[in-house]
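[Target chain]
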Amino acid sequence: MGVKTIFKPTKNHILEIEKWLLEEQSKTGDGFYCDLNTITSAFKSSKIAILIKDNYAIGFITYQIYGLIAKIDIAEIEPSFRKKGLGRKMVNDCLDNFKNKGILVTELYCAPKSSELIWKGLDFFNFPILPHDNGKIRMYKPLVCRLETKETNQIDEVIELWDYGTHVNEQIRPPKWVWNINSSKLKNPIIQPAFYDWQIRWRKGNKIIESCKVKNFDSIASKNCGDFVIIKELKKTDELQ
């Protein structure tokens, strides 16, 4: 049968995972056996992907989905199958599954912190520093082509985002990120981690269409985006309900 990732595992697959997690903890003191309840809960709620070889579970990913965002909680490969590219296959299969469901971005915390290099190798980016992350390493990966930031001039129509709160003095601190937009419906969405109290502005030339905190930016079509600004479409202020 070879190696493949499945999204409807059986109870036997979970028992196989439990067995090698316990063995790993007994031999090394590491691993995710301590999170067995989380794994079991993910199985019951169908929020788990399992890598199988000849129908034997050799890896798994547990996750949660919030609107347009998928959050990976745990990702693990059975120790004897590591460093063979199987983890990359499992993660990419899982991300493809998310994308097919309409998810736009995936996020995770690096636990242990040493996994940061692994996730970077899978094209994940580091979050900007957010107040509530408490020094933890947090990473994300857009699952679709996103609108890239670029240099603009004063006459352009843009979305501007600062990495701090309101009362912006543009002469002292220019925006951290700027996106040039050409229409209300974006060909590629804006996908950017952001704190809800940061300042965001929609400007066309010298005309400010909207300027406020991220949490109050009514022109964002996608609400409840967690710690992201996700903009697929914009509507003028006088069109807002």
